[in-house]
UniProtKB/TrEMBL annotation:
Name the record gives this protein: Membrane protein
Keywords: Membrane, Transmembrane, Transmembrane helix
Pfam families: DUF1206
Species: Demequina activiva
DUF1206 domain mapped to chain residues: 23-89, 100-168, 193-260
Domain of life (superkingdom): Bacteria
Transmembrane segments: 21-44, 64-85, 105-123, 143-164, 194-213, 233-256
Length: 263
């Protein structure tokens, strides 16, 4: 392990990298709370709203204060991406842990880029139109259907992972030092949040696989499309509201994680 890597990854509590990474969890929490609100709005708008990470971030860009917050989000997400990347290249971890860290680094990197794009006024389109455009390009590649299908299966697996992690409360392993009196509340937030997020990811994965099987990029939809699919189910309005509450719960759990995460 290099000296720079050690200082980034194993600095004492209060280390600037640790503070920045913890801020990333807090920003992620705020993002999920906004997403929860947007998802709940879909339930009462008949599907006329959008719910995506870019839409949630875009809601901050309407005023000067919001733009400042976006640039703070860029720094926080970038720090969290670097923190996870350091985990991914750490030689003493198990391969599966390194792969999970690499995936998280990619997610936070995309969020940092999206935040910067919105802050600079270069955000474009909704989540579903972006997803369909990317899938359309992939389907034109040699073996494109298999690539899109593999991505869909990966997203579906991530959804199952979230549901299992929430149901078995494995997320508590990510925390340390949580006050005993707060334990029940934290477990409730984490369980609700992980399961709700897992359900949404699972549906997105299924839609991507369907797009691959039918070779139709219009079938590939992001979070917005997944939520609208739930809305079409019997009792869909209630289900969507519960998913929105779940995303907000995940956001609140992320605030707890920013304070008590094992770093």
């Amino acid at each position: 392990m290099t000296a720079s890597h050690s200082s980034m990854r194993q600095g004492s509590t209060g280390d600037v990298w640790e503070k920045a990474a913890r801020a990333g969890y807090a920003v992620s929490g705020a993002l999920h709370i906004v997403l929860g609100i947007l998802i709940a709005q879909i339930a009462f708008s008949g599907g006329g709203e959008e719910a995506s990470s870019s839409e949630a971030l875009s809601s901050l860009s309407d005023n000067t204060f919001g733009v400042v917050v976006l640039w703070f989000a860029v720094a926080a997400f970038a720090a969290l991406a670097l923190w996870q990347l350091a985990d991914a290249i750490r030689p003493h971890d198990e391969t599966k842990d390194r792969l999970k860290a690499a995936a998280k680094a990619g997610v936070y990197g995309v969020l940092a880029f999206t935040s910067a794009s919105i802050a600079m006024g270069s955000s474009s389109g909704g989540g579903d139109s972006q997803a369909q455009g990317i899938v359309a390009k992939m389907l034109g590649w040699p073996g494109g259907q298999f690539i899109v299908g593999a991505i869909g299966l990966g997203i579906l697996a991530a959804g199952v992972f979230h549901v299992v992690k929430g149901a078995k409360k494995k997320f508590m392993r990510d925390l340390m030092g949580v006050p005993t009196k707060s334990g029940r509340m934290v477990r409730g937030l984490g369980t609700t949040g992980y399961i709700a997020k897992g359900i949404a990811l699972g549906i997105v994965g299924v839609l991507f696989v369907y797009a691959a099987v039918t070779a139709d990029p219009d079938k590939a939809e992001g979070l917005d499309g997944a939520i609208k699919s739930l809305l079409d189910l019997p009792g869909g309005q209630v289900i969507v509201v519960l998913v929105g509450v779940g995303f907000a719960a995940y956001g609140l759990y992320s605030f707890v994680r920013s304070r008590y995460a094992k770093m």
